[in-house]
Amino acid sequence: MRFLKDHRGIESTEVALIIAVVVLVAYGAYRLLGANIAAIVTDIAGKI
Amino acid sequence: MLICALLLIATYFDLRFREVPAWLTLTTLLGSGAYAVFRGLWMPALLTVILCLVAEMTITTQRRSFAVVLSVFAAIFEPASTILCLTLLFIWFLWDLDKMGGADMKLMAAVILAFGSPIVLLPITLVGGLQGLVAYFRKQTSVPYVFSILLGTLLYTVVPLIPK
After folding, report:
1. Cα separation, B14 vs B153, whole angstroms
2. C or N: which end of chain B has fewer Cβ atoms within 10 Å?
3. Which residue segment(s) compose the domain that B106 sits in?
4. Minimal Cα–Cα distance from B151 to chain A, Å?
5. Is residue B76 part of a domain?
6. What is the mean pLDDT of residues A9-36?
7. Exposed (0-12), middle (13-18) or buried (19+): which is B121, by Cβ within 10 Å?
8. pLDDT bracket for residue B36 (50, 70, 90)
9. What sign has the CA pseudo-torsion B22, B24, B30, B32?
10. B163 pLDDT exceeds 80?
11. Exposure of B116 by Cβ count < 10 A (0-12 exposed, 13-18 middle, 19+ buried)?
């Protein structure tokens, strides 16, 4: 299986930097909007 | 602390061979998945298994859209795990786009499942970014990311400044 057979533990330097920025921005957005996101998902789950 | 010990062994393999043996990544992932189920986080654990199966689909667009739909369904079925499910999808996507190694992806998913919080990703990626920056100035093209996973996890465990 592709998922199980991939053993590579390596990343390009650019990707490591981009992931850091993306996660930092996502964390900031989560701190700002986290409660609203949870409320929206709970609302959708309730409607389904 | 057990996961830190496993990550330490994985870091040794990553620094030495730039590969982590399958038995080590799978043991860590399975152990973390079982622990997550034990703590009641059965949906993120189930999503990890589903994403493992979805990876087998050969048509790229079909595989990726299927992964997104299933992750959204997982989040809807267990709203408390929404961020956790989306974080697992994010890591899977990076691997599927061939931007992240399979060992890194499995170990990061294991750490997220073990701690039951996506916040652990913050110190890991910040250490990874710093490592990437150092490697960039040293004209290196790649970084052994398992070291960042280990150091980030240790920071999350030890430093009380990072919100848990």
Report:
1. 16
2. N
3. 2-116
4. 14
5. yes
6. 81
7. buried
8. very high
9. negative
10. no
11. middle
Asked if A4's CB is within 8 angstroms of B26's CB, the reply is yes
Q: List CB contacts of A29: < 8 A, sequence separation 6 or more.
A: none
Q: Which residues of A touch B51 (CB under 8 A)?
A: 3
Tell me if A16 and B95 make a contact (CB, 8 A cut-off): no
- Residue-range definition of the domain harbouring residue A19: 2-47
Distance from the Cα of B103 to chain A's closest Cα (Å) equals 5
Is A19 in contact with B128 (Cβ distance < 8 A)?
yes
Number of domains in chain A: 1
Query: B145 and A12 in contact by Cβ < 8 A?
Result: no
Give domain status of residue B58, yes or no. Answer: yes
- Lowest mean pLDDT of A24-33, B21-30, B36-45, B150-159, name the range: A24-33
pLDDT reading at A40 higher than 80:
no
Out of B26, B82, B148, the one facing A41 most closely (by C-beta) is: B82
Q: Is the pLDDT of residue B160 over 70?
A: no
The answer to whether residue B99 neighbours chain A at the CB level (below 8 Å) is: yes
Total number of domains in chain B? 1
pLDDT digits (tens, 9 = 90+) for B38-74: 998 889 999 999 988 888 888 889 999 999 999 988 8
What are B71-92's pLDDT values in tens digits?
Answer: 988 888 887 788 889 899 999 9
How far is residue B19's CA from residue A22's CA, in Å, rounded to a whole number? Answer: 25
Q: What is the DSSP letter of B138?
A: T
